């Protein structure tokens, strides 16, 4: 490294191995320094350069003065006393706020040794799609997140987890396939042996249905999972619930899902929020059965989670407008699908008491100081 060279104060978190190698080469250092830093960033989760004893003191000092490893600030942390879910309100460098959720998960019955955790990450500040059952959809869309901002949510969750994190779901704020380049880059780093070293099958990307994005995902040579927010196969009902259906018709979404399933040789997960007398009829069961004959699939049934503040954000679907499906009806719907040969899971409402369940993320600033945070 020549003393006359100066570099901008780049945030190195979010760079992949090749970018870090090029970064060091521009500094006059050997490229393998980039590989070393890559492992320290994502595998050992450093937040400063001091622990990297493989680097000379002068190199560590130079990096400290000219670059940064910048994480979002934890503005608020809420912990559910009901189920152990933790929700983080994170402040990005530009002042924008996002939320991510850490969810306890038990893999093998009641065996405490099999406990793991799942982190649900955001991909955008807000969301432009405006799904009527989602708090994030009622927010104003601001921007896409960088790969570094996505990965940072996972690394922050790891610091606070009491068990090993085995699953990452791109199911928080935003539409992942409208930020596909950052999402794919983050996944590649997370599953790399020298990076996050996570199982590819533990990664799930959830989309409201962007056909071109689904096809693009099918070409990524990593076997992560795909989930599609379906909620209805009836055009009028889906138009009501998900305005994106007016732009990307459900027929086009299903066509891309079939292409994805063939390319990946994998099942698609269809997310399905049940609303009383809207999308939980016997006819809806038949439509899902017909779909199962076209594409290998399983169904995640989700209970709608209403919030008092959603009406203030412009939410049109609430208990008075359409009606919440009773828990009993959800299980009846699940049983009807199972008897027709469809694999069905009824999603838990983990984090509901802290507005951390499906559809509840809205990055509300609760204006609590760090001293007032609810700790784990």
Q: Would you state the CATH class of the largest domain?
A: Alpha Beta
Strand content: 15-25%
Distance between the termini: 44 Å
The best one-word shape is: elongated
Number of domains: 2
Mean pLDDT: 85
| Total beta strand runs | 14
Total count of helical runs of at least 4 residues: 10
CATH fold call of the largest domain: TIM Barrel
**Protein structure class:** alpha/beta
Structure description:
The strands form 3 sheets. A 10-stranded mixed sheet has the order 3-4-5-6-9-10-11-12-13-14. A two-stranded parallel sheet has the order 1-2. A two-stranded antiparallel sheet has the order 7-8. It has 2 domains: 10-68, DNA polymerase, domain 1, CATH 1.10.150.530; 73-354, Aldolase class I (TIM Barrel, Alpha-Beta Barrel), CATH 3.20.20. The longest helix is centred in the last third of the chain and has 15 residues, at 250-264. The chain is an alpha/beta fold. It is built from 10 helices and 14 strands. It has helices spanning 17-26, 32-42, 57-66, 147-160, 180-191, 211-218, 235-241, 250-264, 282-292, 327-338, and strands at 10-11, 67-68, 73-79, 86-91, 97-106, 115-120, 124-125, 143-144, 165-170, 203-207, 225-229, 268-274, 297-303, 343-346. 29% of the residues lie in helices and 19% in strands.
């Amino acid at each position: 490294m020549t003393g006359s060279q100066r570099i901008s104060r780049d945030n190195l978190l979010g760079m992949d191995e090749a970018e870090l190698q090029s970064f060091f080469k521009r500094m006059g250092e050997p490229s393998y320094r980039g590989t070393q830093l890559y492992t320290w960033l994502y595998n050992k989760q450093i937040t400063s350069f001091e622990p990297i004893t493989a680097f000379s003191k002068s190199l560590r000092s130079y990096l400290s003065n000219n670059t940064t490893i910048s994480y979002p600030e934890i503005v608020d942390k809420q912990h559910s006393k009901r189920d152990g879910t933790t929700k983080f309100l994170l402040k990005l460098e530009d002042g924008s706020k996002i939320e991510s959720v850490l969810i306890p998960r038990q893999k093998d019955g009641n065996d405490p040794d099999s406990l793991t955790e799942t982190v649900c990450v955001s991909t955008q500040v807000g969301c432009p799609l405006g799904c009527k059952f989602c708090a994030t959809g009622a927010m104003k869309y601001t921007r896409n997140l960088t790969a570094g901002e996505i990965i940072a949510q996972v690394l922050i969750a790891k610091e606070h987890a009491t068990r090993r994190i085995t699953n990452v779901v791109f199911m928080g704020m935003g539409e992942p396939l409208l930020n596909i380049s950052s999402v794919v880059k983050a996944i590649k780093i997370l599953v790399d042996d020298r990076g996050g070293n996570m199982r590819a099958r533990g990664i799930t990307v959830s989309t409201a249905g962007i056909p071109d994005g689904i096809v693009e995902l099918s070409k990524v040579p990593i076997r992560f999972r795909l989930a599609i927010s379906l909620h209805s196969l009836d055009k009028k009902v889906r138009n009501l619930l998900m305005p994106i259906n007016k732009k990307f018709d459900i027929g086009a979404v299903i066509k891309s899902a079939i292409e994805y399933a063939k390319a990946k040789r994998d099942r698609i997960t269809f997310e399905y929020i049940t609303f009383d007398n809207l999308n939980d009829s016997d006819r809806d069961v038949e439509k899902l059965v017909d779909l199962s004959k076209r594409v290998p699939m399983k169904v995640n049934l989700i209970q709608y989670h209403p919030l008092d503040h959603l009406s203030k954000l412009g939410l049109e679907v609430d208990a008075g407008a359409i009606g919440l499906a009773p828990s009993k009806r959800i299980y009846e719907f699940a049983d009807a699908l199972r008897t027709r040969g469809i694999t069905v899971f009824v999603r838990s409402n983990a984090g509901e008491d802290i507005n951390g369940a499906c559809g509840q993320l809205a990055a509300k600033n609760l204006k609590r100081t760090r001293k007032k945070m609810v700790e784990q």
